[in-house]
Amino acid sequence: MLAPPKTDIILYTSSTPNGQKASITLEELGLNYKVKNVEISKNVQKEDWFLKINPNGRIPAIVDKTPAPDGKTREKRVFESGALMLYLCQKYDPTHELVYPYDTDHYWEIVEWLIWMQSGLGPMQKQGQANHFYRYAPEKIDYSIKRYQTETKRLYQVLEDRLRQQAESGRTAAQVKGPWIVGDRMTIADIANFSWINWAEWAGVDVKPFKHVSEWCDRIANRPAVKRGLDVPEPFKLKEKLKTKVRDS
């Protein structure tokens, strides 16, 4: 692996699954970046200064001030977590540590699983809605909770089947313990999906019945760069909170 380039990136983020997608990707690529904690509980993401970076008023977003190869100054904003991950890999992953070369079959498989995550597990879709109705809705509506938890489990089964197929196909290289969603190593498809499934308990969903998904989560969570990325912009204590709640209940 080549030494990572000297980058000048500002990450605007918060401790959410989408925010962690961005910080994990930056950490896995070994890029230099600064962090701006956007306090979404205070609606900071709706302030005028942030809307100039992301007109949709959502985190994460980056501003890349890394000089161009010819030395000219530049300032590129990127919002939407999936676009941000693709951008970082296209610009700063020449050895294809987290993606495969553009226009290969594996490259497009990564894009497929990114879009699957964005439209299925994403915050305005199935697991996000499960989070909302299970944790935050002012009125507990059993129908809504069951509907979105059931759909989340269906999506987990889709991923379970994919990982099982990958294991059975023997695609995973012996030196890189898998299976992984695409090819023989961890890619941004894995990071994107992990970042949401790692919050499964917060939506009231148990990952343990999905053997391959559970083991895959553990493999990713134990990577040093992932551990660092989870702690951006502040220490990730969700698991500890849930364990404490179980002990106190």
Task: Describe it.
- The protein is an alpha+beta fold.
- The chain has 10 helices and 4 strands.
- Strands 2-1-3-4 form a 4-stranded mixed sheet, with helices on one face.
- The termini are far apart.
List keywords for this structure.
single chain, 249 residues, alpha+beta, 4-stranded mixed beta sheet, 4 strands, globular
Q: Mind sketching the topology for me?
A:
Layout: E1 9-13, H1 17-29, E2 33-37, H2 48-51, E3 61-64, E4 76-79, H3 81-92, H4 105-121, H5 126-136, H6 142-169, H7 188-197, H8 211-221, H9 224-230, H10 238-248
Parallel strand pairs: 1-2
Antiparallel strand pairs: 1-3, 3-4
Helix pairs in contact: 1-3, 1-7, 1-9, 4-7, 5-6, 6-8, 7-8
Average pLDDT, all residues? 89
Compute the gyration radius: what is it?
18 Å
Identify the overall geometry: globular
In the predicted model, the low-confidence regions spanning at least 5 consecutive residues are: none
Q: How much helix, percentage-wise, in residues? A: 40-55%
The total beta strand count reads 4
Side by side, the strands of the main sheet go 2-1-3-4
- Structural classification: alpha+beta
Strand fraction band?
A: 5-15%
Largest sheet: 4 strands, mixed
The H-and-E topology, N to C, reads as: EHEHEEHHHHHHHH
N→C terminal distance: 48 Å
Tell me which oligomeric state these chains represent: single chain
Number of helices: 10
